[in-house]
Amino acid sequence: MRTYELIQKKRDGGELTAEEIEALLKGYLSGEIPDYQMSALLMAVFFRGMTAQETTALTMAMVRSGETLDLRAIRGTKVDKHSTGGVGDKTSLVLIPLVAAAGVPVAKLSGRGLGHTGGTLDKLESIPGFTTELSAEAFVSQVNRIGCAIAGQAADLVPADKKLYALRDVTATVDSIPLIAASVMSKKIAAGSDAIVLDVKTGSGAFMKTLDGSRNLAKTMVAIGNAAGRRTVAVISDMAQPLGMTVGNALEVREAIETLRDGGPDDLRELCVTLGAQMLVLAGIAVSEEDAKARLERLLSDGEARAKFREMVRAQKGEAPAPSSGVVVAIDAERIGLAAMALGAGRAKKDDVIDPAVGIVLRKKVRDAVREGEVLAAVHAADRRRAGEAVARVQAAYAIGRSAPPAGTLIHEIVT
Ligand code: URA
Question: 135 catalytic, yes or no?
Fold first, then answer.
């Protein structure tokens, strides 16, 4: 059938086959089907909806439009989590280290804020030096090493969603349940986890304002996930008022840390424990929700969840470890200055723009004792590549010897 006839079929309430949906998506991505025809189809879907088969077919065609993440190298049942977005929703910052501390490996790809809703990447990037740009190899190896990682989605994952979302955004077709469900689930399926817990928000601060709408969206997404062979559960949580007491990136990170310190607001804690319990049950490491909740409460009160958060932040921040044990005998100040300059703290050319957020924090100075692997300095970089380069430069600037040199002089002379 021609594109015209497929639009007509959907407009008149017909059901598109999986082959027709695949052909439409492929045609749109190749540029053969223009924006105006895809816009008409999206509007027909908006009014006519999609059957469960159509929605799953659209999701899987979107998954096939790009690369998928292969997480097989990570041991255990990987469980992902996704929120449909809300105000003050800092859940992932608490939940991911919390369930990782319980033994569930989490390889989480997160997004940025959309409209009035915040995004986990923006929140994490308010931690100085934290990078969310991880290669697939670094991402997988970090999850194997410490149990969790949160990174930004690579551009080659579900390119169909980027193109379709941009079109929906300008054609008043964003708030269609099958289109939202296919958009979210295609990204979750491409991200490779074995099981998925969805936090579907409902209320004034959510995309879905009514409980009926949120329940429909939740059921649609759970059906897609299960049809794709990923065990999927959705929790519908309230977004009639902001979650917790803070809204805004750095403030939300602080509130998440308070919660990991066994404090924080009750609603945030309850939501994290509820979502976490579903994740533990899906991973098969808790016998019941009650058992899972009790374990998660314990990990919050005994500091293990907080320690896991610190481990994740340390892993995703550039830190220069000491190559050997001994005493710092010298730090080449010029080399450190050049490393900071290369990060963007200084100018190499006169019109270079200074990045005020980047730089180096020394943790060891001359005459300090160090153990092999201990952090000499932390690098605050704008991206992973420059962080790696700066770490190597910082290590080269430190000289480590066997015994401490004589105490140095700070004020050499006063000349009048
Ligand atoms: N979030 C998404 O990822 N996709 C949508 O369509 C709506 C919200």
Answer: no
